[in-house]
Automatic annotation (TrEMBL):
E.C. number: 5.4.3.2
Key word Glycosyltransferase present: no
Top-rank EC class of the record's enzyme: isomerase
Protein name in the entry: L-lysine 2,3-aminomutase
One Pfam family recorded for the sequence: LAM_C
Family statement drawn from the similarity comment of this UniProt entry: Belongs to the radical SAM superfamily. KamA family.
Species the sequence originates in: Prolixibacter denitrificans
Reaction(s) catalysed by this chain's protein: L-lysine = (3S)-3,6-diaminohexanoate
Highest taxon of the lineage: Bacteria
Length: 381
């Protein structure tokens, strides 16, 4: 396993380590295993580091609830930001998440109903979701899989269970695209991740392999040289990285994204629209322009899924349309993602757009541009 002592870090990190992890070295800090072993699991631990945070924190989580865990790295990032920064709410549990509102259910996307065998969700004809782990290095409080991630009896899939999923994919020749997710696959050691990739790449009809992860954002030192060397062997390989806010684009996270891009991995971002966190046009513009600079293509804005206790995170759907309208024409087309609702009940991702098409009639298409001006395009029968 390659640990890179000179992985870049913000200058405030040295002070943070000296204050809160005085026996650790920079080499320890840049070791992703050390980060996981020293993860913060209680709100009291985090309060000791950050002081008072916004909202009433949950000191003791109910049994079988989504656990609390963040890495020392992400705690250090939060400590660099102004007090009560919006990012705090993305990872720190508050009592609002214990309030269940109408329409909220544990598995809103009905992934269980579309699971023909353990670990596989087969909703679309030519692609499957492969849930290879239930473990994450940080647990987002709005996670659509809060019903299964971080649970001891669901977190650690065995190789035998993986093999059952791999066999399902091998037997269904219409499957050309496999998304490896969880949990977070990049929390797996290199040798286990390579086992998965090598087995999937050996299936002739599997054309594309994708990995869904938040690790570059919350555990960027996981992106070691040995990891990128291994990943390069299994192209075409793509990666979807979950960002929530432009302030996550630290020097460490930028380095991780650049390393992955240098390995030839196309990177896309997936961002959940969150009330009071990123629900402003300027926030998305800053995030998406920053992502492009580290070769991450903004791909999706997700309407927040109605998991139990999510009302305080969810915006009106109109807010997502407003953000798309505020981006289209005002920044690079590459910086404008798709706004989608992952339909409750298993309907899949449904894209939504502002109403740019006004009408089609009498051989004319009436269009409205980003400034609200109207134009006519000559149609053909």
């Amino acid at each position: 396993m390659s640990i890179v002592p000179n992985f870049p870090y913000d200058e405030s990190v040295t002070r943070f380590i000296n204050q809160f992890y005085p026996t650790a070295t920079i080499r320890d800090w840049n070791n992703w295993i050390w980060q996981l072993k020293n993860s913060i699991h209680t709100t009291q631990q985090l309060t000791d580091i950050l002081g008072k945070t916004e909202g009433e924190l949950i000191s003791s989580l109910p049994e079988n609830h989504l656990p609390f865990q963040i890495t020392p790295y992400f705690a250090s990032l939060l400590s660099r930001l102004p007090g009560r920064h919006p990012l705090y709410r993305t990872v720190i549990p508050t009592k609002e998440e214990l309030i269940v509102s109408p329409g909220e259910v544990a598995d809103p996307l009905n992934e269980t109903g579309d699971s023909p065998t353990r670990l596989i969700v087969h909703r679309y004809p030519d692609r499957v979701l492969f849930l290879v782990t239930g473990f994450c290095s940080a647990y987002c409080r709005y996670c659509t899989r809060s019903h299964m991630v971080g649970k001891q009896h669901k977190s650690h899939a065995s190789t035998r269970e993986w093999d059952m999923g791999i066999e399902y994919i091998a037997q269904n020749k219409q499957i050309r695209d496999v998304l490896i997710s969880g949990g977070d696959p990049l929390t797996l050691p290199d040798f286990r991740l390579e086992y998965l990739l090598s087995k999937l790449r050996a299936i002739p009809h599997v054309e594309i392999i994708r990995i869904g992860t938040k690790v570059p954002v919350v555990l960027p030192m996981r992106v070691t040289n040995s990891l990128t060397r291994m990943l390069k062997k299994y192209h075409p390989l793509m990666m979807s990285v979950h960002f929530a806010h432009p302030d996550e684009l630290s020097v460490e996270t930028q380095e991780a994204c650049n390393r992955l891009a240098d390995a030839g991995i196309p990177l896309g971002s997936q961002t959940v629209l969150l009330k009071g966190i990123n629900d402003e046009v300027e926030t998305f513009k800053k995030l998406n322009q920053g992502l492009l600079k580290v070769r991450v293509r903004p791909y999706y804005i997700y309407q927040c899924d109605p998991i139990p206790g999510s009302l305080h995170f969810r915006t009106p759907v109109s807010k997502g349309l407003e953000i798309i309208q505020g981006l289209r024409g005002y920044t690079s087309g590459y910086a404008v993602p798709h706004f989608v609702i992952d339909a409750p009940g298993g309907g899949g991702k449904i894209p939504l757009l502002p109403n740019y098409l006004q009408s089609i009639e009498n051989g004319e298409v009436i269009l409205k541009n980003y400034e609200g001006n109207t134009y006519t395009y000559p149609d053909i029968a």
